Amino acid sequence: MAAHRDLTVATYNIHKGVGTDRRRDLGRIAAVIAELGADILALQEVDSRIGPRTGLLDLPRLAADAGLSAVPMQGVGTAHGWHGNLLLLRNMQVREVHQMNLPGFEPRGAVITDLTVAGRPLRVVNAHLGLLPASRAAQVRSVLARLDGLAPCPTLLMGDLNEWRNTAQAMRLLAGRFAIAPSAASFPSRYPMLRLDRIMSYGGPVLRDAAPHVSALSRRASDHMPVVARLRITDQY
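RESULT FIELD:
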């Protein structure tokens, strides 16, 4: 029987810490992150967008309280993320980081991080796609092309894809490569109707039990709820 390890993975658009009550409260965001118990957490909108980008989270406190360390970005000044995208990890080795600018009407980006997890390679893509359907399709093509240019590796893709229709071009392109974990709606957090936040994988790892993380705090802390899944890593990939 193959040995395996299960990890908790999650994606969360923190909406720059602004909750459904229109108050910015990063303490609530930190509390929701602690509730998740994630080993790998993809965050979006972690930086301010008016004026120079500035990181909003207390990263040392998150490391101390939640055991999650941020993957450092290059050339971002006082920002935490790349176009607002940041990856938090629990006790994992980072081998390489690729910061991508994505095409489209608005500035968008993705981060591709190569990890060693339980002695096995794992690639994690954290992305926040645009608001226009044509931009989303172009951005997915750009990410897939970049992955094609890298050495093959089991891959996990997470983020706010701003796409709720599985029939949309961006999702059809992703479905040609990834197994998309089914999950309920995560946006807007008070009365979720749209599946904007997605988790998917290919090349070996199996996703299980994907679902929004529903709590009193997660309904208030951001306009998105986090989506959480179990990722099974076996010694056979």
